[in-house]
Specification:
Elements: H1 2-12, E1 42-45, E2 51-53, H2 57-64, E3 69-72, H3 83-98, H4 102-110, E4 150-153, E5 159-161, H5 174-182, E6 186-189, E7 200-202, E8 207-209, H6 214-219, H7 235-245, H8 248-252, H9 277-286, H10 290-298, H11 300-305, H12 315-318, H13 327-334, H14 348-363, E9 375-383, E10 389-396, E11 399-401, H15 411-427, E12 437-439, H16 441-449, E13 452-459, E14 464-474, E15 480-485, E16 488-490, E17 496-498, E18 501-503, E19 508-510, H17 552-560, H18 565-574, H19 580-589, H20 594-602, H21 623-632, H22 634-638, H23 649-652, E20 670-680, E21 688-695, E22 698-703, E23 706-709, E24 720-725
Parallel strand pairs: 11-15, 12-18
Antiparallel strand pairs: 1-2, 1-3, 4-5, 4-6, 6-7, 7-8, 9-10, 9-14, 13-14, 15-24, 16-17, 19-20, 20-21, 20-24, 21-22, 22-23
GO molecular function, one term: zinc ion binding
Biased composition (Low complexity): 643-652
Protein name: Ubiquitin carboxyl-terminal hydrolase
C-alpha cells in the first residue's frame, strides 16, 4: 500500500489545474491530426495540456517523463478511487473539459466577419411616423405578393421584393423601384434579422452597409431584433448559391458530375477552418513537390525527436501537419500577420510567397525546399539614343503572366454581351448571362516577352533623358515553375475586379527561347558615371543631380528602407529612374565607395562589403525583418572569412571578386503541368479555392475535405499553375 501511495504522489506532482491563459489542446494532436474521434482517442498531458494521439503519447512520455494523461474518447475510463488522487485528478479533468479549446479560442480571436462600411445615411436616417408595424412573419411584397427575398425600407416600413438575378431567380426589382421613386436609401432584408444583426443595403451607396442604429430603426416599425430568428439566406450566401449554379463555380468544382471519391497516401483532404481553402490548396500542392516531402515528411521521426517542448509553436513540426484540420499550422504560419492571422479569405499567391518566406527563415543553415521554385530574372535595358545596354538580375519565385484582353478570340460575342448588359441596365430588365473572354496562351506569353518602353530613361551615355527598352528574360530555370495568371486588376474607377477569362494553358511548356544571354558580342554597356563631389547632409545636392528630375517615389521607398537621402537620390539618378530594384542594387553595390561609406556611417548604417542580395530593411522599427533576412542567409554569410575592419580576408589582400549570388538551380526550360489552383468569386477577398493535382497520370480534385478523381479538370480557368522540369533523368511521373 505504501508503494502504491508513493506512485500516486509521484503522479500527482505532475498534475496541475488549467489556469486562465493556459493553451488547452483537447481537440487535436500536437504532432498529427488525431482527435478524440480517432481510433485510440486523444491523450492530453495533465501538465502541459498538449494533446497526443495514441501513436505519439509514448514518445511524449519518454521525452518528458510525464505520467498522467487525460484520455478523451467515446468511452472514458473512471479514475482510480483514492481520495486525494481522485479529488486532484477530478478537479484537473473538470477544469480541462470546461476550458475553451485552442481551436475554439482561435476561431473566436480570428473571426472578423464580413467587412462592411457604415452607411453615411444611418445615423441621421429620417423615419416616417406613419403607424406602420411589421409582423414577425408572413411578409409579402406589396406589389407582386412574392414571399421571399423581401426588403423592408427603413424610412417608411414598406416591404418589397429584391432584385432579379440573371438566371431569373431573386425578385422583381420592386424594392429598387421604390427607392428610385422616393429616395429612401436604406432597406433591411427580412428573414436575416437576428440579435447579432441583419443584411442592410444602401441603394444610394449601391452596397451592403452597416447600420449602427439598426435596433432603433427596426423598433420604430415594431420589430424586436432580440427575438428574431434567421429564416432567409444572407446576400453572401445567395451570391455563392447563384454562382454555384452557373459560371466558374460549377465548372471548377466539377459540380455537374458524379465524382469518384479517393483515399490513401497523398489523398487526404483538409477541413476548411473558416475561409482557409487558400491555405489548403497551396499546402496540398506544395507537399507533392519532392523537396518539401523530403524536408518535412521523409524525416518525420527526426523532426518529432528534435521538436521543442511545445511542438504547436514549432514551424518544422507543424510543417508536416497536412491532414484533417490544420488549426495549429494555420495559427502558426499566420501569427503576427495582419491578414493570414484572420479568418478572412486571402490571395493564394500572397500566401504562397508568405509561406516560402517562412521556409527561408526557418531553414537557415539546413536544406531549403523553397529552392525548388527560386530562379533568376535578367533585365536588359537598351538606351535607344546610344544603343548601349545595362544588365541586372533579381531573384523571383513566381512568373506573373499578363492577360492581354485585346487578344480575345471571341471579341464579337463579348461586344454583343456588353450591349445586352447596357440595355438591361437602362430598362431595369435582368442582366444577361455573362460571357467569358477566350485568351490564347500564346498571346499571354507574347505579352510577357515583348520589350517594355521606358520614356523617361536617363542615359549615362547620352547624359540626357531619352527612350529605352527593357526586356525581361530568365537567367536560370527552376526545378518547378509557378505561373500566376494576373486575373486581378483595377477598373478605370480603381475598384478591384477579376478578369473572367479562359486561357488554353498547355500540359507541356518550353521556355527555352526566353533564356537570357547576357552581354552580346560587340555590345557596349552603359558607363558607370563617377559620383558627384561629396555634399554634406544639410546641403541640397546640386549640379548634375539638381538639373534633372528624379523619381520621388523611388527615392522615398529607398529612404524608408533606412538609406540616407543623398545616397537614395544618387542611386535613382545613376540607374536612370528605372525603378526600385535597380536603385537598391546600385546602393548595395556601392557600399565600398568612399562617398557612399561616409553617407552610410552618417545615417547610422554599417557599410557591407559582401552582400548576397539586398537586405530589405534597416530601420530600427523593422529590425525583426532585417534579422529574419540575416538568419535566412546564414549559409552565405558564414562562407565569408571576415577579418578585422569588416573586410574579408580576400579583399584585404586586394582581391575584388564579385560577391556570391543567391543559390539557384538551373537546367532545361522544358516543363509539364502537374497541378493548378483555381479561384471562384469576384475578388481574392471572397469566394473559394480548390486545387487539381496530377497523381499517377490521373487528375485529382482537392476541394477541402473532398478528394475525388477529376473527370474534366478545368485547366483553362486556373489562377496558379505549377510545372515541373522534364529532362531525360527526371521523367514525367508522380
Amino acid at each position: 500500500m505504501a508503494e502504491v501511495s508513493e506512485v500516486l504522489m509521484s503522479v500527482l506532482s505532475t498534475i496541475r489545474v488549467p489556469r486562465p491563459g493556459d493553451r488547452v489542446h483537447k481537440d487535436e494532436c500536437a504532432l498529427s491530426f488525431s482527435s478524440p474521434e480517432s481510433e485510440g482517442g486523444l491523450y492530453v498531458c495533465m501538465n502541459s495540456f498538449l494533446g497526443f494521439g495514441s501513436q505519439y503519447v509514448d514518445r511524449h512520455h519518454t521525452r518528458s517523463g510525464q505520467r498522467a494523461y487525460l484520455h478523451i474518447s467515446r468511452t472514458r475510463k473512471a479514475p482510480v478511487s483514492y481520495t486525494l488522487f481522485l479529488q486532484t485528478v477530478s478537479l484537473a479533468m473538470a477544469g480541462l473539459m470546461s476550458a475553451d479549446s485552442v481551436s475554439h479560442a482561435l476561431q473566436v480571436q480570428q473571426w472578423d466577419g464580413e467587412v462592411r462600411a457604415e452607411s453615411r445615411h444611418a445615423v441621421e436616417l429620417k423615419q416616417l411616423d406613419n403607424g406602420t408595424k411589421i409582423p414577425p412573419s408572413g411578409w409579402r411584397c406589396e406589389v407582386c405578393d412574392l414571399q421571399e427575398n423581401l426588403w423592408m425600407n427603413l424610412s417608411d416600413g414598406r416591404v418589397f421584393c429584391g432584385r432579379r438575378y440573371f438566371d431569373g431567380s431573386g425578385g422583381n426589382n420592386h424594392a429598387l423601384l421604390h427607392f428610385q421613386q422616393t429616395g429612401h436609401p436604406l432597406a433591411v432584408k427580412l428573414g436575416t434579422i437576428t440579435p447579432d444583426g441583419a443584411d442592410v443595403y444602401s441603394y444610394d451607396e449601391d452596397d451592403m452597409v452597416l447600420d449602427p442604429k439598426l435596433p432603433e430603426h427596426l423598433s420604430h416599425f415594431g420589430i424586436d431584433m432580440m427575438t428574431m430568428e434567421k429564416t432567409e439566406h444572407t446576400m453572401t450566401e445567395l451570391e455563392i448559391a447563384v454562382n454555384q449554379r452557373v459560371g466558374e463555380w460549377e465548372v471548377i468544382q466539377e459540380s455537374g458530375a458524379t465524382l469518384r471519391p479517393l483515399s490513401g497516401p497523398g489523398l487526404t483532404g483538409m477541413k476548411n477552418l473558416g475561409n482557409s481553402c487558400y491555405l489548403n490548396s497551396v499546402m496540398q500542392v506544395l507537399f507533392t513537390v519532392p523537396d518539401f516531402q523530403s524536408k518535412y515528411v521523409s524525416n518525420i521521426d527526426k523532426i518529432f525527436d528534435e521538436a521543442p517542448s511545445d511542438p504547436t509553436q514549432d514551424f518544422k513540426t507543424q510543417g508536416d501537419q497536412v491532414g484533417i484540420a490544420a488549426r495549429m499550422f494555420k495559427a502558426l504560419v499566420g501569427r503576427g500577420h495582419p491578414e493570414f492571422s484572420t479568418n478572412r479569405q486571402q490571395d493564394a499567391q500572397e500566401f504562397l510567397l508568405h509561406f516560402i518566406n517562412m521556409v527561408e527563415r526557418n531553414c537557415r543553415s539546413g536544406v531549403n525546399p523553397s529552392e525548388a521554385f527560386r530562379f533568376l530574372v535578367e533585365e536588359r535595358i537598351v538606351c535607344q539614343q546610344s544603343q548601349k545596354a545595362k544588365y541586372t538580375q533579381r531573384v523571383d519565385y513566381i512568373l506573373q503572366l499578363p492577360v492581354p484582353m485585346d487578344q480575345a478570340t471571341n471579341t464579337e460575342e463579348l461586344q454583343e454581351a456588353e450591349r445586352r448588359r447596357e440595355e438591361a441596365d437602362s430598362s431595369g430588365a435582368p442582366p444577361p448571362a455573362p460571357v467569358r473572354a477566350c485568351i490564347p496562351f500564346t498571346a499571354c506569353m507574347a505579352a510577357l516577352s515583348e520589350p517594355e518602353t521606358l520614356t523617361d530613361f536617363w542615359s549615362s551615355a547620352a547624359q540626357a533623358k531619352t527612350t529605352a527598352t527593357k526586356t525581361t528574360r530568365f537567367a536560370s530555370f527552376p526545378d518547378h515553375m509557378v505561373i500566376q495568371v494576373k486575373k486581378f486588376t483595377f477598373g478605370q474607377d480603381w475598384v478591384p475586379k477579376k478578369l473572367d477569362v479562359s486561357i488554353d494553358v498547355p500540359d507541356t511548356l518550353d521556355l527555352t527561347a526566353l533564356r537570357g544571354t547576357g552581354q552580346q558580342p560587340g555590345e557596349e554597356l552603359l558607363p558607370e558615371v563617377a559620383p558627384p563631389p561629396l555634399m554634406t547632409p544639410d546641403v541640397e545636392v546640386k549640379g548634375i543631380l539638381g538639373s534633372h528630375v528624379l523619381d520621388d517615389s523611388t527615392v522615398s521607398q529607398l529612404c524608408e528602407m533606412g538609406f540616407p537621402l543623398e545616397a537614395c537620390r544618387k542611386a535613382v539618378y545613376y540607374t536612370g529612374n528605372t525603378g526600385i530594384d535597380g536603385a537598391m542594387n546600385w546602393v548595395m553595390g556601392h557600399m565600398d565607395d568612399p562617398v557612399h561609406t561616409h553617407l552610410c556611417c552618417w545615417s547610422g548604417l554599417q557599410p557591407f562589403n559582401q552582400v548576397v542580395s539586398p537586405i530589405p530593411l534597416f530601420q530600427s522599427n523593422v529590425l525583426e525583418r532585417a534579422v529574419d533576412w540575416i538568419f535566412s542567409h546564414l549559409d552565405d554569410l558564414e562562407s565569408m572569412e571576415v577579418s578585422e575592419g569588416g573586410r574579408s580576408a580576400a579583399e584585404s589582400e586586394g582581391s575584388r571578386e564579385p560577391p556570391p549570388g543567391p543559390k539557384v538551380r538551373d537546367g532545361p526550360g522544358k516543363y509539364e503541368l502537374f497541378a493548378f489552383i483555381s479561384h471562384m468569386g469576384t475578388s481574392t477577398m471572397c469566394g473559394h479555392y480548390v486545387c487539381h493535382i496530377k497523381k499517377d497520370q490521373q487528375w485529382v480534385i482537392f476541394n477541402d475535405q473532398k478528394v475525388c478523381a477529376s473527370e474534366k479538370p478545368p485547366k483553362d480557368l486556373g489562377y496558379l499553375y505549377f510545372y515541373r522540369r522534364v529532362t531525360d533523368l527526371y521523367s514525367s511521373c508522380n
